[in-house]
Amino acid sequence: MRNINEIADAVRRNERITTDDAITLWHDAPLWLLGELATARKRKASGENVYYNRNVHLEPTNICLFNCEFCSFRRREGDEDAWFLSLDEIEARAAELKGADITEVHIVGGVHPKHDLDTYCAMIHRVKRQLPNVTVKAYTAVEIFYMIRREGISVVEGLRRLKKAGMECIPGGGAEIFDAELRAQICPEKCSAEEWLAVHRAAHNMGIATNCTMLYGHIETIAQRVDHLDRLRKLQDEAPGFDAFIPLKYHSRGNRLSEAGECSTEEDMRTIAISRIFLDNIPHIKAYWVSYGKATTEMALAFGADDIDGTIGDTTKIYSMAGGIDRPTMSVAELEAMVTDAGFRPIERDSHYNHITRHKVAEESIKESIVVGVDESITPAENVEVEESGNVEITTNNDMSNPMIEQPQPVRKEPAKRSHKPKSRPKKSNKSTMAGSMRGAMEAIKRFYGRFPIISHIILIGIFGLLLLGTLYFGLNIGTRHGNVIKVPNFLGMTIEDARHVARNKELNIIVRDSIFDVNLPGGTVVDQLPRTSEVRDVTVKPGRKVYVTINAYNRRMVDVPYVAKQTLRQALNQLERSGLSINKLVYEADMTSTDYVLSESIEGYDVRPSSSIKAAVGTGVTLTVSYRRDEQYTIVPRLVGLTLQQAQSSLWDNGINVGKVIYDESVEDLISRRTTKVYKQSQALGTSIRRGNEVTLYLTCDMELVDSLAKAADKEAKRYEEQRRKELEKQRQAEKEGTAKSDSAE
Ligand code: V47
Asked: Residue 454 falls within a domain, yes or no?
């Protein structure tokens, strides 16, 4: 197994990383390193570009045959808030979009028992009838698999019919997590991973581009995420055709996985960055703003994302029904500002990542240019009208010059949209006098050219050269602010006011992203920052970039103390953690029937009851009285080496163990550096059997090399322990079998 430094060097050499490497990065890589590596990979794939499009979603129904654990969108036929759009209603919606200037309609919805392949084709046909120039991106592989199986035809035949109806590309939904065991838990009725991949393989082989997704942050493990990414990377190697990968953050409101809670923004950044690093053959990584919200999407651009999806125009409910943004809509100006604020170049794209350039040509300047254009016989400039949004020109996407990434589809060059409508003749005005003097000037130039042709050519070449040099100089400087980089200062430990002052002098922007409360630190102290310069590595950025900081709050936030008794210890811990509370102590009490069931709860001496409404400062510890059966008095110490204090505490509580002393070594100089420590030693070794409710002491350090080497030893120990456990269980099973056989023969 390679260590972090070896993996980072391999990424810098542009080499592929293994699944083991990805797992190591996920567990151990500092966030700044992931940002650095992912951004380098992003730059190789798409330079400074970040893409968006003008799109809408069409969700024909939320009635679905399948009943996935994570879904908040699905309704049953007859439910009060179920909807179903007929073909006429779908066409009417498309007709309403006629003037909306969109380039893509993304159709996805519930798998409705009344819908067969013909209905799905008819939906596309109706949309295209109203919006012939718009690309239809339609149906997840789950829907496609359902419709072709119902029809009894092959995947290729099904795709051929959808393509004929006008489907141009396939969105990435329905992938969830490929692992069969987890799939059986969270979406047992959906098509299998193999079936999902088979639909996309067939599409790629037919030249249909597709996207792919991963639903993360619920109950999946890191190993299952990496396995998911690996299957996508393998398919892309075998049959290229994925345009973009979209990590979809699980949202917890109103579905049956809510207990799992939602993952942190840090986990989002890790997921985006590792996807970018691992999926070296998929050109685009999309941070779907509808799921992440504006601030996190902007942050994702510093972790390898190069697409933020589109304008949406309040047309999707999948995320708002799960607790995401309500009525999601974003103007082009807002999308572009998000990208430029993050220091990148916004590019409008079509559904195949061809660049769209819109020339905002003012009516007046057309008239003028035609007047200046000497040949008066073609002057009826008044007959030309530019569309409201200007001309649209689609150019090929030069990102694909990257040899690392093969463009699966031939890039299409689409005709420019332009409408020619009659227009009233403009009034004569002082414009005509201006045109007259321009004509005079042109005449004079012509005369000079006639008399001194060689000098005229030299002057023209000179002017042209100067213009070219000027454009290159300003273009490079404005576009990339080339050579102008700033070392990000270390703001940790400064007050937010001082940090802002230092940042202003360096042309950086400080954004307060989060706050914590640590009684030992003064309010307003910067306790974390992103990107972060460390002792081992300087981080440089361009002027104007944002630095996201976490500060210590001035006042301790008060939160409601939830009633968590009468449920399992794990459920109670999850609920407390989500409320911002922690554990003071686990007190174990013998019980006849259950182990790790919370019997009662108290905080600062007060009993918490279902009806009590107690508030406590964030971070306060709750005391839980928990049951144990006499035959389950003992629990096993987990592996803690390599974890942060918070992770180690959670792991101990989860296993019914109390946190004992927390001891910092001499590398931890101050309160701020405590926040970057990891466990290098635990008082009881992993695998030790101890009484429930006993304590384990934790030893923490800032010395990551020490942590790395001890974590490796701990890994070996964990493997040895697992092997031993496996053998013991095997022996036990064998003994039980023999026991049963004996009693059978005795009978
Ligand atoms: O397949 C469902 C996910 C997907 C929840 O291809 C949830 O460009 C989070 O695939 N929390 C549908 N996610 C959306 C989708 C998509 C979105 C944007 C762009 C593209 C693209 C594709 O939404 C589903 C599922 O994985 N989902 N419920 C939830 N509670």
From this structure: no
The structure's pTM equals 0.58
pLDDT band, residue 93 (cuts 50/70/90)? very high
Residue to mutate (ligand 1; options 135, 213, 214, 315; most atoms within 8 A of CB): 213
Say if residue 422's pLDDT is above 90. no
For 108-241, strand residue ranges (E) read 135-138, 167-170, 209-216
Bridge pairing between strands 615-617 and 558-560: antiparallel
pLDDT band at 318 (very low <50, low <70, confident <90, very high): very high
Q: Is 320 in the pocket of ligand 1 (CB under 6 A)?
A: no
Q: Which domain holds residue 736?
A: 637-747
- Under a CB-based contact definition with an 8 Å cutoff, are residues 624 and 598 in contact? yes
State in Å: Cα 140 to ligand 1 middle.
10
Shared domain for 88 and 53, answered yes or no, is yes
Number of domains in the chain: 4
Length of the chain, please?
A: 747
Q: Are residues 112 and 208 in the same domain?
A: yes
Among candidates 726, 578, 701, which has minimal Cα distance to 640?
A: 701
Same domain, 616 and 496: no
Ligand 1 atom closest to 253 (CA):
30
Is residue 728 domain-shared with residue 593, that is, in the same domain? no
Between these two residues, 619 and 117, which has the higher pLDDT value?
A: 117
Boundary of a domain, candidates 597, 632, 667: 632
Q: CATH no. for residue 682?
A: 3.30.10.20
What is the best residue among 215, 225, 252 to mutate for testing ligand 1's pocket, by most ligand atoms within 8 Å of CB? 215
Q: At what angle do helices 430-451 and 453-480 cross, to 10 degrees?
A: 120
Give pLDDT, residue 362.
44
Query: What pLDDT is attached to residue 697?
Result: 95
